[in-house]
Design brief:
It is a multi-pass membrane protein. Keywords: Membrane, Transmembrane, Transmembrane helix. The protein is mainly α and 276 residues long. The chain has helices at residues 2-28, 35-61, 66-93, 97-111, 113-138, 146-166, 174-202, 225-234, 242-264. The radius of gyration is 21 Å and the shape is elongated. It starts with a helix and ends in a 12-residue tail after the last helix.
Amino acid sequence: MTAIYLIGLREGLEITLVVSILVAFLVKSDRKHLLKWVWSGVAVAALLSIGVAALLQAGTAYLSGPHQELVDAIASLIAVVFVTFMIFWMRRMARQMSKELRGRLEDAIQVGPFAVAGMAFLAVAREGLETSILFFAAAQGADDWQPFVGITLGLATAVVLGFLLYASAVRINLTKFFTWTGALLVLVAAGILKYGVHDLQEANVLPGLNNHAFDLTGALPPTAWYAELLRGMFNFTPQPSVLETIAWIAYGVPVLVLFLLPMLRKPAPEPAPSNA
């Protein structure tokens, strides 16, 4: 539930910021009559995202055996691609997002109200579909309501934070927020990739299911809370296969370094000049 809460919080805040930028632009430019079109596009995008998530869940419910494992593995791989693209895109575009959205909305206004609704739909649908696929991939293997509780709490927290930001009742350093949540999502994505490799092994697409890299079941009992936290957050299991471990390290380490590299390369502030 912790990993899914993080996904809901991160993706939900991105969606909330997009909607806040569009609403604020229309309000400040005295075009409040177009707000209903923005909200219409947002509503359709939300329904589409919920529908995709429900379709994915319902579709796998009718599968069993290798077919289900193969579908789960494909969903995991797609989710890893999405989350990797998303965190790097957000790091690059965070400072320009407001300007870009206002420019697109201004162009849509010149075309007509349906273009405004379409622009809002596309802006929100991209994030919503990413959330649906990430949720489906992260919730695999769960047999209770915890994933739904996690995504609901994450989205609800994002909506509250977005409203407070819009009302200027709270200030958050969004650059640091997206940097650290992005770093955590890299580790979550590494766990999803590991889960995908495990599914491919169970579907007999990849070998080595019983070839374990190590065995920590004695130090990490499956029922311990810390073992559950590691498994739920990063899909860490005490007895992974060699291919699962290689996949986790081969993705997690280089992607995390590349993501944090710009922050690590920031030059140190120059010392103040001394008086002669």
